[in-house]
């Protein structure tokens, strides 16, 4: 079958001969990737039987097999994301015949997920630029631009360079272009080995061919080793691969060149490969027994094919080649040496990483309405609703309960609605998880940048909400009281967002994190002192939850802000003046606001201590989130 002709998006230059703008992307140090007796088990169940393989620079390997055959397990183990069950050396995955420390291995390899972890609000060019900034500090701005433009040209993405990847409100680039961008993002960091999980996932046959075609050309030009799991490629796509590793039920059935497949099956197993049939489909049919009518017969045939591989000359030759590479390494030959762009001192420091992450997140924050735009609109709507429901309340005793209800509602629901941040943080978390596994940055940089980007927006929300609702409801009309109100709303939102970050980091699932954050805020609302005054709150809830409930300190200080320095007129009747709260101003037909506070046990003068406690709670959520990120693999 003739491969499809390149589309208009394919670069006109010859990719196999055209160099990138930065020569450091070309591999000159890696001569082999090999593994021997690589296996993986869960308890007593073997997921991956001992596997052996050898790859040279410029080669493109396809890992194929039916569902449940162990493709993803092998790929994860080869990339050292999953530790092997057993090995005969410190690491059975060898570069130039040498086992490398995990940190060094991560610095020269990259893993492209099956599901694209791309920030949709960035343009294609920005995505590559930030990937470069997070991976190396040795490039000048000009060199970085040249490297970005070189990869855009190499992957046929020049025309899409200024188009966003894709958000809820902006469709962005196509699935095939996203797949190419995902690979380009990893290549810009100068790896020597690239692992791809389900390389054609989410794209059609044409898009799959384009992705693999680009990979083949890049591998040839830059001497890279590329390992990709693939489910069921078209004939044209399958023929682009140099080598095939065929799996079934965790066992190897073939490892060798794609060109030698037909000869192997005919001479070793006596099976003729049909001429006018997709070889990938035919191979999968031979090693898949899920739909066989006679399971025992099919399993026996499968075992014969697997044993045929174990007895084959091709297997003996592979074992010999792997042993020869290991023997040469023992003599000190072909020792793997890091290139200039891979050394530790060339990596950006913490400050540079945080600055890059802040810049990237800031771009996302104003382009993607899910990040803060929707929340700002929600809070603005809530402020208008509150201001018009509790509209121009007079300073009378009839307004005291409505004032109290409004204070509770405003503070509690403001923090409750922070659940809207869950989807935006989940995108950041997924991006972090991928970039952490690729060794770009860790939990500290992630948590710092997230806090620095979110803080100005939360302050803006606090001001907008207060400007609308505070004056409409006619709370204490002084500048001091207004700015104190804004300050406590700001702390409220900081704590609420910290809770979202912690819960979502702990359970990175939209439904689970949403439910947990909502439940936690419901708990805080119940014990913050409004529903049940602190003096009568159940001992368990008071001492276990009440004192570290951030809503408790917000509600208390907002109440003090409104009532401590304000008086309210009593109701005048034919029988005289009737005051609902008896204070020292009763003879003047007035209620001193402190009388309202006394029923809650609130007294002014503790704001400094309460601010300190709130700061500790805010920091505590962030530290807890940092610990979760730090401890997760």
Key structural traits:
disordered N terminus, 633 residues, Rossmann fold, six-stranded mixed beta sheet, four-stranded antiparallel beta sheet, alpha/beta, 22 helices
Structure in words:
The protein has 633 residues and is of the alpha/beta class. It has two domains: 27-114 and 191-346, P-loop containing nucleotide triphosphate hydrolases (Rossmann fold, 3-Layer(aba) Sandwich), CATH 3.40.50; 350-631, no CATH class. Helix content is 52%, strand content 11%. It has helices spanning 71-78, 102-108, 124-135, 141-154, 175-187, 205-222, 235-238, 261-268, 279-287, 295-311, 313-330, 350-367, 369-389, 400-416, 422-437, 443-473, 479-506, 510-527, 539-544, 550-563, 593-598, 607-631; strands spanning 33-42, 45-55, 60-64, 93-95, 98-99, 109-112, 193-196, 225-229, 243-248, 251-257, 567-569, 571-573, 576-578, 590-592. The strands form four sheets. A six-stranded mixed beta sheet has the order 6-7-8-3-9-10, sandwiched between helices. A four-stranded antiparallel beta sheet has the order 2-1-4-5, sandwiched between helices.
